Description:
Layout: H1 3-13, H2 17-30, H3 34-47, H4 51-58, H5 62-69, H6 77-86, H7 98-101
Amino acid sequence: MTNDEYKSDLYDQLQDDEFAAEYLKATLTDYDDFADLALGLKDVIEARGGVAAVAEIAGLERSHLYKILRGETVPGIDTLNAICKAVNLSLSVEPIDEKEAA
């Protein structure tokens, strides 16, 4: 499978809200850095219309969203929430599994 085929398949799967949510959860679980989350978020955004469309829906400047996705700036909670809502996802808080905390 080529990289283009992989991306195309991934973007098709990311159309599903549950898959997209689990994809981002896995990114958060596997990495502790916002830059890594930004890479996962970029895939979801590209799969769901691209940066320009999502920025418009979220009420953001396209250039600001690009900076977020490149890890050049870390968004506030309100901005991250707006981005999530624009791709039909939401932020949530869950208790830490004791096994994960150790």
